[in-house]
UniProtKB/TrEMBL annotation:
<keyword id="KW-0547">Nucleotide-binding</keyword>
<keyword id="KW-0472">Membrane</keyword>
<dbReference type="InterPro" id="IPR005895">
    <property type="entry name" value="ABC_transptr_haem_export_CcmA"/>
</dbReference>
<dbReference type="InterPro" id="IPR003439">
    <property type="entry name" value="ABC_transporter-like_ATP-bd"/>
</dbReference>
<dbReference type="InterPro" id="IPR027417">
    <property type="entry name" value="P-loop_NTPase"/>
</dbReference>
<keyword id="KW-0813">Transport</keyword>
<keyword id="KW-0201">Cytochrome c-type biogenesis</keyword>
<protein>
    <submittedName>
        <fullName>Heme exporter protein CcmA</fullName>
        <ecNumber>3.6.3.41</ecNumber>
    </submittedName>
</protein>
<keyword id="KW-0067">ATP-binding</keyword>
<dbReference type="GO" id="GO:0017004">
    <property type="term" value="P:cytochrome complex assembly"/>
</dbReference>
<keyword id="KW-0378">Hydrolase</keyword>
<feature type="domain" description="ABC transporter">
    <location>
        <begin position="10"/>
        <end position="215"/>
    </location>
</feature>
<dbReference type="GO" id="GO:0005524">
    <property type="term" value="F:ATP binding"/>
</dbReference>
<dbReference type="GO" id="GO:0022857">
    <property type="term" value="F:transmembrane transporter activity"/>
</dbReference>
<dbReference type="InterPro" id="IPR003593">
    <property type="entry name" value="AAA+_ATPase"/>
</dbReference>
<keyword id="KW-1278">Translocase</keyword>
<dbReference type="GO" id="GO:0016887">
    <property type="term" value="F:ATP hydrolysis activity"/>
</dbReference>
Length: 215
C-alpha cells in the first residue's frame, strides 16, 4: 500500500446531526481513502442527504468534524472545494436553457471552458437533444445533463446524491464503470442510491447504513 492510499482523503469524526429534535446520526466516524466507492444506504428521511451535505461542507453538523487530507474542511475550504465535485439531489439544470447551454454553463463554472460539449453530451446519450430546452427533456435526461460534468472534472472527491435516479439500465452501467475508473485513478465516490449497484460490488464497494434513531 502506498503512502497516498493510506492517507484518508476525507475523515468523518464523530459526526452528529439533529433535525427537528430527531437524531439522524450520532458520533458517526469513518475514513474515506483514494480508491473507495461508498454507498450510503437507508430509508427515506434517514439522513443520507444530510450526511452528504455535511461531508461537502454545505451544512454544519450538530457536533463533530470533517477533515480533508488531515485538515478541518473549514480551514482549507478553497483547496477542498477545488478537489470536490458535489451533485445534489436535484439535478440543478435550468429548464429554459438547452442541454448544451446547461452543460457549457456548468463546465465554465467548474473551470473547463474548452471541454467539447457535443462529445460530452454524446457520452451521456444526449446526441440529438443538444439544442432542446432542458425543460422539454425527461427526468433521466435532466440528470444526464447534470452528470455529464463527471467526464471532465479533475476533482478527486465525488459526492453524488442519488445520481442513478431516473437513469436507465445501460446508463447506470456506464456510470458504474466511470465510478470504478475514477476510483482506480485514485479518486473516491460517495453516493446515495436506493437501487443495488450491478457492477460495483464485493471488495470494490463499502456500504454505510443509516437508520432511524429517535431522541
Ligand atoms: N434543513 C433542514 N431543516 C430541517 N429538517 C431537515 C433539513 N434537512 C433535512 N431535514 C429533515 O431531516 C430528515 C432527513 O432528511 P434527508 O434528506 O437527509 O434524508 P434522506 O435519507 O436523504 O432521505 P431520502 O431517501 O428521502 O432522500 C428528514 O426528516 C428531513 O425532513
Amino acid at each position: 500500500m502506498t503512502e497516498a492510499s493510506r492517507t484518508p482523503l476525507l475523515t468523518a469524526q464523530a459526526l452528529t446531526c439533529i433535525r427537528e429534535e430527531r437524531i439522524l446520526f450520532d458520533e458517526l466516524s469513518f475514513d474515506i481513502h483514494p480508491g473507495d466507492i461508498i454507498q450510503i444506504e437507508g430509508p427515506n428521511g434517514a439522513g443520507k442527504s444530510s450526511l452528504l451535505r455535511i461531508l461537502a461542507g454545505l451544512s454544519r453538523p450538530y457536533a463533530g468534524q470533517v477533515h480533508y487530507c488531515g485538515e478541518r474542511i473549514e480551514d482549507v475550504r478553497d483547496d477542498y472545494h477545488a478537489d470536490l465535485l458535489f451533485l445534489g439531489h436535484l439535478p440543478g439544470v435550468k429548464g429554459e436553457l438547452t442541454a448544451e447551454e446547461n452543460l457549457e454553463f456548468n463546465l465554465k463554472i467548474a473551470g473547463y471552458a474548452d471541454a467539447p460539449i457535443h462529445d460530452t453530451l454524446a457520452k451521456v446519450n444526449l446526441t440529438g437533444f443538444e439544442e432542446h430546452p432542458a425543460g422539454h427533456l425527461s427526468a433521466g435526461q435532466h440528470r444526464r445533463i447534470a452528470l455529464a460534468r463527471l467526464w471532465h472534472t479533475q476533482s478527486k472527491i465525488w459526492i453524488l446524491d442519488e445520481p442513478l435516479t431516473a437513469i436507465d439500465k445501460r446508463g447506470v452501467q456506464e456510470l458504474e464503470q466511470l465510478f470504478m475508473q475514477h476510483a482506480d485513478n485514485g479518486g473516491c465516490v460517495i453516493l446515495t442510491t436506493h437501487q443495488d449497484l450491478q457492477l460495483v460490488s464485493g471488495d470494490r464497494l463499502r456500504k454505510l447504513r443509516l437508520d432511524y434513531q429517535f431522541v
